[in-house]
Amino acid sequence: MLPGFLPEVRDDLHRQLGERDIQLRLGTGLTAAPATEAGRTATFTVTTTDGAEITADIWFRAHGVRANSDYLADGRLTTRTAQGQVRVTETLTVHGHEHVYALGDITDIAETKMAAHAMQHAEVVVRNITAQLRGERPTATYEPSSTPMVLLPLGPRGGVGQFPTPEGPIAVPAATVSEYKGADMFTARFIEQFGPTAA
Description:
- By secondary structure, the chain is of the alpha+beta class.
- It folds into 3 domains: 1-20 and 147-194, no CATH class; 31-63, no CATH class; 70-133, no CATH class.
- The chain is built from 4 helices and 5 strands, in the order αββαβββαα.
- It has helices at 7-19, 115-133, 174-182, 187-194; strands at residues 44-47, 53-56, 150-154, 158-163, 170-172.
- The longest helix has 19 residues, at 115-133.
- It is globular.
């Protein structure tokens, strides 16, 4: 779990999962998908490739990644990669288009697809569109970090994290994960940014 992250981050994640009586079955897979629909309660039993049986009442599909970009399937704007992504320049324009931007999971940028990266993409896109509206050349560029970062909450007060620093990556404690994300999953941040909406 969390390959490429600091050993202490991975170890702390394993420890916290163990404290919550969550059993990890690493290095194995299922011989067949559950017979029940993902995300719906219904008891089922599956067999792992190492011969163990697991009985549960719900499962979630959390494997395989493909960008939701079927609206580009006709190829009129650009061609997509096998993962459904589009090629972007360092200014986050779609290759071949000076006024069309892409950000988030749809980009072919070699980085983990995370909300934090998409927010950084958005900052670059806003600066470049603002420059173009002023009649200036867009110069803001995006360069993925060589150090992976993560805030992985385990409930409102648990979790693990890793931040990049000029001296290298650092592990952050559960209290920091809670403060930044776990307590409200960034909802307060977005309410502050966009304002509350009427129900």
